[in-house]
Automatic annotation (TrEMBL):
TPR repeats: from-to residues: 30-63, 72-105, 114-147, 156-189, 198-231, 240-273, 282-315, 324-357, 366-399
Annotated organism of origin: Rotaria sordida
Main location: cytoplasm
Name this protein carries in UniProt: Kinesin light chain
PROSITE patterns: TPR, TPR_REGION
Domain of life of the organism encoding this protein: Eukaryota
Pfam families: TPR_12
SUPFAM superfamilies the record matches: TPR-like (SSF48452)
Length: 462
């Protein structure tokens, strides 16, 4: 934070001098506001960054012709802030305005157009519109292939983004292939301890983790951490990410003491490196809370989840998806504590936010419907539970490819539930253990099977 404060002080001093020496709408004033915005962006103070970028844009609109490339850059910066704040519709509007200017001002294969496609793809990915995201990222890659040499690092970035989309839709083998293509380019183009190589190892580790290959995931995450330790200062936020990811592997393996130690190490770095209400700190409170939750220490978990939520309420807009995730986590905790009215209220709040912030078939909506179904099931309202579980399943069917492990699990459990409830449980647990299927995905189908049987039993007894 010390270097950022020095940079901010210098940029602000430059602005004060320019305000005295230059007319009020001189382009150099716009440059100063832009630079100040960049510092706020890097420190996670997105509302302040947005204000500075908007002030820069106001001056440029007066000082420059309407399709000047600098205007496109300002719209792009504003879009990035809205994207970081989870305001995806505003981000998309700003990115598209930037793109329209660039189409007029620049040749058809200019790299700034590739950048626009990339940013628009990022918003669609955040909104869960993965087919649109993939199309935008692939268009960006096409331009880069024309404009850049074959092993340019920017090509690696595009393969990385395409991998992110495949990851999000559960096509882990395709994601892994894209991440490995990105990594191959980076190995050629970059020095051996470049941070982008660490990022590639990290992403490859994510895929192995998602596929349940935890030893390979650990190996990739640890290689990523080794590079970061060489390339970055000791309290850099990216080191916190590595400790966090290694912790998640141990968490998924049920080694909660190791996970807790790593999450706390990540948290200590974030406390030093980030402002006190940065979303990254909220993530740490959440992850540590999840460990205590799974260890049955509900009071500690609740305290940490609530601290995470407090930070998010300050740092993020009121309908940001991260807030929905926090309400979701606290709601799940109340389910396990048997406090069903609180659980229902929180999961409904989570659902309300997700309905506003996300497209109608986003997978996170399925999670909310599933959790509300769990409350109704635990309180014996099986018909209501079944309705919510079926909504969850419908979304998963629409949002995931037919080869996704969750949908294949659904087929097996449909067969199992025709026989007996205990078989449902055995199949769910076996698949979760062997294939590394995420707990939430498994429970959506498993709960549907339980509720169907319970509802049928209730009906037959009437």
């Amino acid at each position: 934070m010390g270097e950022y404060s020095k940079a901010l002080s210098s940029f602000q001093r430059s602005l004060e001098i320019r305000k005295i020496a230059l007319p009020p709408n001189h382009p150099d004033l716009a440059v100063s506001y832009n630079n100040i915005g960049s510092v706020y962006e890097d420190t996670g103070e997105y509302s302040k960054a947005l204000s500075s970028y908007e002030r820069s844009l106001e001056i440029q609109k007066i000082a420059l012709p309407p399709n000047h490339p600098n205007l496109a850059s300002s719209y792009n910066n504003i879009g990035s802030m809205y994207n970081n704040m989870g305001e995806y519709s505003k981000a998309l509007s700003s990115y598209e305005r930037s793109f329209e200017i660039r189409k007029i001002a620049l040749p058809p294969n200019h790299l700034d157009l590739a950048n626009s496609y990339n940013n628009i793809g990022g918003v669609y990915a955040g909104m869960g519109e993965y087919s649109k995201a993939l199309s935008s990222f692939e268009r960006s890659l096409e331009i880069k292939k024309i404009a850049l040499p074959s092993n340019h690092p920017d090509l690696a970035g595009s393969y990385n983004n395409i991998g992110n989309v495949y990851d999000s839709i559960g096509e882990y083998s395709k994601a892994l292939s894209s991440y490995e293509r990105s990594f191959e380019i980076r190995k050629i183009a970059l020095p051996s301890n470049h941070p982008d190589l660490a990022a590639s190892h990290n992403n490859i580790g994510n895929m192995y983790s998602n596929m349940g290959e935890y030893s390979k995931a650990l190996s990739s995450y640890e290689r990523s951490l080794e590079i970061k330790k060489i390339a970055l200062p000791p309290n850099h936020p990216d080191l916190a990410v590595s400790y966090n990811n290694i912790g998640l592997v141990y968490y998924n393996m049920g080694e909660y003491s190791k996970a807790l130690s790593l999450f706390e190490q990540s948290f200590e770095i974030r406390k030093i490196a980030l402002p006190p209400n940065h979303p990254g700190l909220a993530n740490s409170y959440n992850d540590i809370g999840s460990v205590y939750y799974n260890m049955g220490e509900y009071s500690k978990a609740l305290s940490l989840y609530e601290r995470s939520l407090e930070i998010q309420k300050i740092a993020l807009p009121p309908n940001h998806p991260a807030l929905a995730a926090s309400y979701n986590n606290i709601g799940n905790l109340y389910i396990d504590m048997g406090e069903y009215s609180e659980a229902l209220s929180l999961n409904e709040r989570s659902l309300e936010i997700r309905k506003i912030a996300l497209p109608p078939n986003h997978p996170d909506l399925a999670v909310s419907y599933n959790n509300i179904g769990s409350v109704y099931e635990d309180t014996g309202e099986y018909s209501k539970a079944l309705q919510y579980y079926e909504k969850a399943q419908d979304i998963w069917k629409k949002s995931l490819p037919p080869t996704h492990s969750f949908l294949m699990l659904k087929v097996l459990l449909n067969e199992a539930q025709r026989n007996e409830y205990s078989l449902c449980q055995v199949v769910a647990e076996a698949i979760r253990t062997i294939l590394g299927v995420h707990r939430t995905n498994t429970l959506i189908v498993y709960n549907h099977g339980k509720a169907t049987i319970s509802n049928n039993d209730t009906t037959s007894n009437l």
